[in-house]
Amino acid sequence: MSHQQQQQGMDSALFERRLRPVYDNLEVGNNRKALQESEKLLKKHPNLFCARALKGLSLLRLGRYEESHSCLQAVAEEKPTDDSTLQVLSFCYREMEQLDKIVELYQHAVKQNPGNEELLAHLFISHVRVEDYKAQQAVALQLYKTQPKNAYYFWSVISVVFQGIRGPESAIPEKRKIYLALAQRMVDKHIKESKMETEQEAFLYLHILKLQNKYQEAWEFLNGELCAKLYPGAPVSMKFELLKKLGNWQKLNELLQELLDADRDRWDYYKEYIQSSFELLETPSEDQINPDKQGFLASCQAFLERIIETSERKKRGPYLARLELHQRMRAVQMPADKLIGDFDELIIEYFQLFGDKSCCTHDIALFLPSISMKQRQDLASKLLAECDISSSSLPQNKEHMQKHICALQISRMCGSHLDLPVDHLLAFYTALKLHYEHGRSTFGKQLLATEMGPSDPYALLAANVMYDISQRENKSDQLFEALCLLQYVLRNSTSNFHVKLLSLKIYHMFGCLLGAQEMYDYLDIKQIQLDSMGYAHCQLLPLSGRFAGARNCYDATLKFFTNSYKERLEYIALTYRFCTFSKMEEFLNFKERLTNSLQYVSCSVEAQICDLVSCYGNVQQNLSSYMAMSIEPAEDRIAWHELSDNRDLEAIIRWDPLHLVDTEAQRKESFDQEVEVLQIRSLMLRLFAAFIDLNHGTKNNSGEGSGKATATLELLRDSWTGLYQRLRLMNYKPLSQTFLVNLLPTRLHLLLELPYESFMDDLAQLVLDLHSGANRLTEQCKRMGDNVVLVMELFVHTITESNEWNGMDGLWKRREHQQKVAACLELLSLYAFLLSVLNEKLQVISKTKTKKNRSSADNKNQDATISEKERGQMVHELMRQLKHKLEACDAAIRTWKAPVLPRDLSSFMADMSLKPEVEATLIGDVSATFKESHELMVTELRNLLKDKIRMSAK
Amino acid sequence: MTTLRPFTCDDLFKFNNVNFDPLTETYGLSFYTHYLAKWPEYFQLAESPSGQIMGYIMGKVEGLSDNWHGHVTALTVSPDYRRLGLAALLMNFLEDVSEKKRAYFVDLFVRKSNQVAINMYKNLGYIIYRTILEYYSGDQDEDAYDMRKAMSRDVNKKSVIPYTQPVTMRELRRELRHEQQKVQQNL
Q: What single-letter DSSP state applies at residue B77?
């Protein structure tokens, strides 16, 4: 027993009992008490490592980082080996993202206890966290020597594989080859010794073979005895993959026929089957000189027909497969009509059979892009005719209605509504509305709370149609009516998330943040949805009109991200623990996607800006909140090239004309713009932090630190003007707003249009001049004053304009106006904070300087620069001016009117069988939401203004 | 018409059209990652020809000796793809995996009020094995049915002889703890 063990392990049970209160307090978040308990314990046992580590953890949790650091460092230097101390220390290092420290910790521990399995396993996982595959391999082998468990052996195998395909050397083809060959040899040896035991081990072997393009070997192993025994659940798709690689289309074709006979509704099988038939066409046949090439397709067709004829229950599979075959034949100019039949008729047959299923629209849509626009619209008319529903005849039953819905959705996808004049569209809307109401009252009465109404899709379509009209007329009336209709639908079918998503969009369009928030809450978006659906709400909040309100939403989102960021590496550790080799790469990639989520990064930046804008304490309080944000202006922490787009843009349903919707192009376009917005925002944040840093904190006030801070500021200022220059040259177009489901414009054009560039640029110069006392300071103060006037005038003007718009259309420009107001206020608020910091600093300096001047009259260099006292007066003057302008803003905002809503609404549902009181409360509720939303916003913005006025009153 | 494939981490970003359904819970990440890491073959997804997620099934296999069984943790189908037999397809898949893992039976918990689901499971050959009192907590606690279906390994169908007495949550927890202790002893 080593000395350390003797000392630490005297009576582990006793110590465990004594340590318990510390653990318990930490667990419930009572960190102060935990600290006291650990200190109490340390008085008796000053050397108890675990108590010292726990003290470090308590300090960490209390935010006393420096004390915590030295406390932890001291324990780590003692090279502890007992499990509980090591656990606590590695927990702390994980929290602080100092993952290499954990590696060191366990390296020391292993050195003192060679062959300790548990410590070695911890060491292995610590290498996993930093993705050091080479070190992983070495430790895994040590582990295997200690305990010949298969898990350890395969840990080392996968570590070798990762060196070949992910590690630093993976880019060198020869190295990759060597590593993979080594991994294979390792497994080969194990197989030879009959030591392969599990399904995941078999998977890994197959994977290694495939990575080396050894498809024949993989095929043989997959079909061999061992694999059948260990890996009976090997997915059949693996067979497809290998047969394809081996070019064995004949065998693949036969295998799929067999599978399809048993399982007749599998799209993955049909797809491969049809592909194999086409591949067989291309394969030169050895038997025949001039084979009947189309024979393969004919037998494919015959096979599908046979499946159709012999199936008792009608399944979509073979029918869709037939359409797919038709489509693919046409794509290579082969006589599809002759072999299979007329395309339109096939579609109509499909529609007759499956039109009553809501997925029928998605199915038919698959084949529309392959036919001309003319044919699409003709087909759409045929499908509508099939439904036999006109203004005088209504659907007879639920199924009939669903068919009608499907035909209507398809006709929109085919572009049939595009050329209709507005009055036709309005009539169409009315028909849809009536169909909704008829369907609801006839087929939707006994709806469970968890079900969607069967006629809801009519209303969704109606909302899209009304958007089209609004877009054509540049007026909000129709869309507002659609919003009311959607809110009506939502009362009847409370779980229809499509309705909530569309309403959310419309509320945002109209700047109604309260309504948007209600819909968002109603959707109950949480966990990973905060990432994938954040674009529908959270991402729209910055500069939308409210600051404090938006901050709550950022908070919820950031909480998810910080949590998963902390856990992200433990997920990967889990795959090792369970030896799930098939998931390791997937988990590693997932970790990257999650941590580089654009939503995550931009939400953090917006939250920080929001905090700086809204701070309301005295200078010292504000500065300490600023310090807690620990922004490093000199450091760009964003991995720009790794940013990941995790948005689930398909979640919002649409039936827009297929030829006008390119989801991928829209995704890319909007993502690119969002990244540019983030560039502006993060640079603005860093620039602003540089302003503060130059004037705050002892290290930057003079000498070397000051030089460095000045240099950083100048550099960032150059990047700022450079960025704006580049963005203006890039000439981005605002995102297309053609359809309701399109994304709202990004803030890029707002940020380019408003005076952000010059404001921050001039502010940078002002800060530099104030720092140096340069002679042109007077001039720069004037420039800054002009900027403030400009922003204030823009603010006032926007409100006047918004009020004027109320006379014409209270909603159409609402969001735009609110954005401008918020942006102006953001600039002025940041400026107010900065002036308060500058003022504070100059006051302190001039006080100390006066004292100094009295004692030693060293005034040589003072002539060239403006004295601190004068600078202080200048800042005073700037504050006085700002206060004055903020008051003007406050006067303007008090005149801001709530949006006037379209007037004729009270009768808009007159033709629906609504009870008058239902109708009245519905419209009343929507109107109240708009009014309340405006009032909340004005109150919040006025409070912000009040805080800033107070801040500028010196 | 379906493509069945393993659920992957990336699908977590795309499953909103399924998870917005009020009966489908969106869990914390660690829940999904735990299942994906431990029972990857038990987490399967059905994809439509257009690439949409139609639904998914999430399950696990556990238990000692003749209690070695497959368990359905979550089964969900998007509203757009209901009435197509998709749930049955996913259940068949899970049973098939459980057969290959030599499980004695497959079980699942369902809300006593969810008559649609209970009927579906009955049609698939599941019986109500027992009632768990107040299994679902919420505004109003709700009982669950523990439903079971024997696999071929349970030749004498011992696993599906129903319990007549309802079980409380405390008893259920004790049962699980007991099992876990036995597992630990075996390690």
A: E
Q: What angle do helix axes A456-473 and A497-509 make, rounded to 10 degrees? A: 20
Alpha helical stretches, state H, A194-235: 199-211, 215-222, 225-230
- Residue carrying the six token digits 């368990």: B71
ipTM of the complex model: 0.94
The structural domains of chain A, with segments of one domain joined by +, span 754-850+872-954
Q: What is the pLDDT of residue A11?
A: 65
This prediction has a pTM of 0.93
Lowest mean pLDDT among A688-702, A850-864, B54-68, B91-105: A850-864
For chain B, say whether A577 makes contact (Cβ under 8 Å). Answer: yes
* C-alpha pair distances (Å), A234 with each of A161, A199, A228, A250, A629: 21, 8, 8, 22, 50
Q: Does A237 touch chain B (CB under 8 A)?
A: yes
Q: Round to whole Å and give the CA distance between A228 and A196.
A: 13
Chain A residues with CB-CB distance to B49 below 8 A: 267, 320, 362-363, 366
Nearest CA in chain A to B95: A233
Contact call for residues A466 and A428 (beta carbons, < 8 A): no
Mean pLDDT for chain A overall: 92
Q: Tokens 């009576």 — which residue?
A: A11
Contacts of A463 (CB under 8 A, 6+ apart): A482, A483, A485, A486, A502, A506, A740
Q: What is the rounded (10 degree) CA torsion for A305, A310, A312, A313? A: -30
CATH code, residues A754-850+872-954: 1.20.58
* Listed residue (B45, B151, B169, B36) closest to B99, CA to CA: B151
Whole-angstrom distance, CA of residue A189 vs CA of residue A201: 13
Least confident span in A1-15, A272-286, A458-472: A1-15
Smallest Cβ–Cβ distance between B16 and the set A266, A359, A651 belongs to: A651
Question: Does B84 contact A357 at a Cβ distance shorter than 8 Å?
Answer: yes
Measure CB to CB from residue A580 to each of B14, B40, B79 and give the nearest one. B40
pLDDT in tens, A87-108: 999 999 998 989 999 999 999 9
* H or E element, residue B45: strand B43-47
Helices A598-614 + A814-855 axis angle, to 10 = 60
CB proximity list for A790: less than 8 A, separation 6 or greater: A755
Whether A265 has its CB under 8 Å from any CB of chain B: the answer is yes
> What residues contact residue B1 under an 8 Å CB cut-off, 6+ apart?
A265, A266, A267, A270, A315, A316, A317, A320, A363, B48, B49
CA A243 and chain centroid, separation? 38
Q: Which residues in chain B are contacts of A199 at CB distance < 8 A? A: 41
Please choose, from the candidates A321, A333, A323, A404, the residue with its C-alpha nearest in 3D space to the C-alpha of residue A367: A323
Domains, in order of start, for chain B:
3-186 (3.40.630.30)
